[in-house]
Write a structure and sequence with these properties.
With 146 residues, the chain is an alpha+beta fold. It contains four helices and eleven strands; from the N terminus they run βββαβββαααβββββ. This is non-specific serine/threonine protein kinase.
């Protein structure tokens, strides 16, 4: 297990288990990220450490792919359109199908990760918030930290 990335709220490690696809384990610096735990494949809490386990996104961020001549050529238009559709579907799901709705607040090419087949997945929920909804269905102006 070795560190492959670090953000403000977590470190990410690559896990290789024989006979299993590579995984990413996110070691949270703060253990109150319940929404992220819901989106993870699995999570484990060992003492004061909380780990979220995800499918490893081998290709990294959309930003890094597009900034490389080789990567940009490999990400042909059909794959780009599929990525846009996946991102739109993920954001639509978070807003329309989750209760309370989740507002990402930081979607960019850096927060879209690609797996080996160049399929897009939304990530980086560090600034995301729950949208507060009144029983009448009206939206409150404030957002709740997830």
């Amino acid at each position: 297990m070795h560190c492959i990335g670090e953000g403000t709220s977590a470190k990410v490690y690559k896990i290789e288990v024989p006979g299993v696809q590579p995984l990413a384990a996110k070691k949270l610096k703060f253990s109150d990220r319940e929404s992220e735990m819901d989106m993870a494949k699995s999570f484990s809490q060992e003492g004061s450490h909380t780990f979220l386990v995800y499918e490893l996104m081998e290709r990294g961020s959309l930003s890094s792919i597009l900034s490389s001549d080789t990567g940009a050529k490999e990400l042909q238009w059909e794959k780009r359109i599929n990525a846009i559709q996946s991102i739109a579907n993920a954001l639509s799901y978070m807003y329309h199908d989750c209760f309370p709705p989740i507002i990402h607040r930081d979607i960019s090419s850096k927060s879209v990760l690609l797996n080996f087949e160049l399929e897009a997945h939304v990530s980086d929920f560090g600034t995301s918030r729950f949208l507060n909804i009144l029983p009448t269905g009206q939206q409150l102006q404030e957002l709740t930290v997830i």
